[in-house]
Amino acid sequence: MESRALIRRLLPWACSAVLFTPWALHAQTTTISTEYLMTVYAPLDAGEAVDSSLYIYNVRPGGWVKGPKIHGTLIAPSGDWSRVLPSGASRLDVRATIKTDDGALIYLTYNGVFKDTKESEDRANRGEVLTSRDVYFIIAPTMQTSAQKYAWLNDVQCIGKMVKYKNDGYVMYDIFAVR
Fold first, then answer.
1. Looking at the predicted structure, is the pLDDT value of residue 18 above 60?
2. Strand pairing category for 90-100 and 71-84
3. pLDDT of residue 144
4. Would you tell me how many other CB atoms lie within 10 Å of the CB of residue 36?
C-alpha cells in the first residue's frame, strides 16, 4: 500500500519534470508552408511627417496586383502609416483597396516591420532601388471581400516580403498565403 501512495504523490512531479524540461519546451511541433498569391506594386507619394516618429505615404494611381488567381489595380483611398520606433525599426499600418479586373473590390490591410541599416538608408536617400537583400521588410496582410469568386481570401492569413523599394517612389511585395 505504501508504494501506491508514494507513486500517487510523486507521479504529478515526475510528469511535470518530463513536460517542462528544456528539450520539451523548445521542440518544434508544427511546420509552416506558403502558397504564392500575388505581387503588389504600390507607387508612393513622398512621406508627410505628422511628427518626428509618424509618417504618412499616400498610394498614387498606377498601383497593381498580379497573381495566378487575381489581377487588379489599387484604387483610392489607399495609404501607408509608418511609425519609427526608438530602435530605428518602423512599424507599418497599411490600408488599400484592390479593384480586380472583373470588378470585385477587395480590402487589403497589413501591418509589418521595416528595418534598414545606415548604408541602405543612405542608398535609398540617393534614389537607389533597394531589394529584400538590403533591408528587413516583412508584412502580415489580411483581405476582406464580399465577391464570391475571391471569398477564399477572407479565410487566409498572409505574409509578404518586400521585393523592391524606392524611397518616395514605390514599394513592391510578394504575398503568400500561410498554409
1. no
2. antiparallel
3. 98
4. 11
